[in-house]
Every structure is written in C-alpha cells, then in structure tokens.
Amino acid sequence: MRPLRFSINVTLDGCYDHTVGIPDEGLHRNAEAYIAGTDAMLLGRKTYQLMESAWRMPPSGQWPDWMPLWMQPFARTMDAAKKYLVSSTVDTAEWNTEMVQGDLATFVRHLKQQPGKGIGVGGVQLAMALTELGLIDEYQVVVHPRIVGRGPTLFAGLSKMVDLKLVGREEFGSGAVALRYEVKRS
Fold first, then answer.
1. What is the DSSP letter of 184?
2. Long-range contacts, 94-100 (Cβ 8 Å, 24+)
C-alpha cells in the first residue's frame, strides 16, 4: 500500500502563509525529493492554483527571469508530477491533472491501495480533512526560524489528537528544520 504523505512549511508559531518562509536552496532540494518520492500529488484548490502559477512551465519553454537556477530542478519536478485536484468549485483542470470525483475518503483509499512509491498531499484544508479521516501516514513539517504573530495556523480546530513518531530530521542553511513523522497506529 502506498503511504500518503503531507509536507508543509510553517513558522515557529505555526503560521503556514507561503509568503513568510525563508527560501533557500536546501529547502527546494528537500521539496524536490519529496515530490520525486511520490507517484502523484493530491492538491487542494488553493495550493493547486498557487503551485500552477509559480511552477508550470510557461508556453515559451523558458522559466521566468525571477527564478534562480537552483529553483529550476524543483520547478521541473513539480511541473512533471501527476496531480489530482480536490475542489468543489473547480470543474476542470490541466497541467497533468485529474479531478477527484466522488467521496474523498473512498478515492484516497483506492489511490493508496495501488502499487507505487507514495502520494503527496498539498493544501492545509485538504490535509485537515485527510487527518480527520485518519488517512495520512506521514507528516513533514518544515519549521522556519521566524515568529510572525499572525496568519493561519496549522491544524487549528482538529477534532482529535494524532500521535506521531519522529523518523527523520534535516537542518538547512536558513536555520529551518524539516521534521518527519509517521503516525503511530494502535
């Protein structure tokens, strides 16, 4: 069975606003490895649209001038990844994407039963729903050394605790730390 993995960047106070993280080359290598270690990405609408606007290869076939060379391997990996879009407001998608149809839990359980490396999850609301359903097997939380004192926080309002076991740790030049956990199953 393929594991379902969620990865997110947060500040020390738990804010997951993508504009407050500290970008560095190591973080992008870690994110590239995360995506390359999956057979597909399951994305919520907001994350899908954000990722598509930044990481989809432009029609020109050239990455934009704002993108440094060290970001391009991540961009290529994300651009090429198989994607599934979970949305109640979007009916169609492009960019190597299929729409999730029907019951989310049933769809994800079916995906997990197929052979392969794993499935990545992108999107906080989607991760919350999948956590509530008990379907996520691994969490990677990349903690940035910054306190912002505002913004949305991760897993606010979760109805039950989830016990985790630390299985990996990686430090980056920016001072960010990636903590990888597996769900403790009883």
1. P
2. 95/52, 95/56, 97/48, 100/42
